[in-house]
Amino acid sequence: MAVKQARKKNQPQQLPLPKGKLLAIGGKESKSEENRSQAQEDNRGFVSEQILKRFVDELQGKKPLVVIIPAASSLPEESAQDYLTVFKALGVKNIRVVDIRTREDAKNPENIELVDRAAGIMITGGDQLRLTSILGGSPFLERIKERYINEPVIVAGTSAGASAMSTSMIYAGETQGGMLKGQMSATAGLDLLKNVAIDTHFIQRGRIIRMAQAVAQNPGCIGIGLEEDTAVLLKEGKELEVVGSGLVTILDGMDISSTNIYEIEAGEPFTICDLKLHLLGNGKTYTIPSYNGGHH
Amino acid sequence: MAVKQARKKNQPQQLPLPKGKLLAIGGKESKSEENRSQAQEDNRGFVSEQILKRFVDELQGKKPLVVIIPAASSLPEESAQDYLTVFKALGVKNIRVVDIRTREDAKNPENIELVDRAAGIMITGGDQLRLTSILGGSPFLERIKERYINEPVIVAGTSAGASAMSTSMIYAGETQGGMLKGQMSATAGLDLLKNVAIDTHFIQRGRIIRMAQAVAQNPGCIGIGLEEDTAVLLKEGKELEVVGSGLVTILDGMDISSTNIYEIEAGEPFTICDLKLHLLGNGKTYTIPSYNGGHH
Asked: Which residues of chain B from 203 to 242 reach within 8 Å of chain A, CB to CB?
């Protein structure tokens, strides 16, 4: 018996594959046919409301409930209203807003009960640090994770709502694109998505250098850069499909041959050699390698 | 004898290694101790006038002549004046400005004679398309190339002056970072530097996506992205050293595993898989692979 137990311990730890789906959106996803920008007019890949339509298509069950969580925003009513409007327009009959502004709100059984009933959850944009500091470790977040692991719900987040899904969450680092050590700040995200650092508004705001810094700090995290109006739909926690009019940037640091990021002082420019880069358009797929799990 | 000749023809064509040096600068290189920006204050790698001091250090001979070529600028006097001031301050006694505004000026023997006498040549910023359309194929440019190949001169260019050194010269493509096919325009550069596409203001203006497009179009060209106040010093046409306070981005497309850039329509977002990316700080070195030459 003792031998058998020892063997069991030595087996690689297999996390259960989530039954739910994640939809991480790079911000500014199209919400109506009107007011197309020039950039959208130029883009032959642009489809109005493509990402939010996909969210609605993925809802399971009859009369599915969509729950909107505007907790990242300092103006939660406005933020929620935008999504109420577009989801109604897309035919969703059953929509509720969960107004969580404090850690107390994140323990409120009424709010948790809405998560229990939801077929789809939409976490809107704002400040990802507000999101993690209010929701991190809360019963409300735990219930979202339980349902995501065990049931065919879809959890979507845009901008801050997408960044917060990461393991390692980048929350600051605009200046000069983040090429100096320390010009990128990250903390633990909500960890819905394992082994990943998500960043949003990625091409529009030139964020690849700060992401390179995050990836070099821990190559076990794959960098996923989401452009505006561009999303990844994740199945089984690792099978990724691009949805939307822009590009998804994947930055893989597993083959980094050298870096000085751990040697230099804060404020010095860093060096990183042999990052792998993929740029993926609508419909393209990618499997997130489970480097931390040790089997890839 | 006939056999010997045939053998000679079958040998790989070896281009002579240039005896001169190139200094390609990403724009906005430091020109005085004063007026440091906040970004420069934050950057512990910042050294005032570092790049232009290096240019001066590399000048060979006694009382070396520095020739300033402000042909890329629509305000050539102002552009030249900045460099007159800084080179004087750095101790250069012998400086001349070559005012070339037309293709006729690029045939003028007086201008060509200045190139003959120069130990260092500085091509200032402006519009790279102006530079190639005025200098391309001219006796003036041919003389610069002859001297660069055969003599220990240094040829520097900043911003447009650096971009124009490329084989494939990117000259437009701001919108949305260039993620749509056709949102990046390139043409033949002055070809001082082989197998390379240079882009400048690289991190500041978020230009990696447009460079990925250029590299995917012809992976035989390595992409070199120069940040502001950051340069590469090239010896023997391929040995590169980073000089300056920012990062140099190298984008290598030789291992691209798939791309749809040749299949999709203009205006559609493209996909590129398995680009190789290096980010290099001051003092770091890199050898440009001679993929087109067939020996690497």
From this structure: 203-206, 208-209, 212, 227
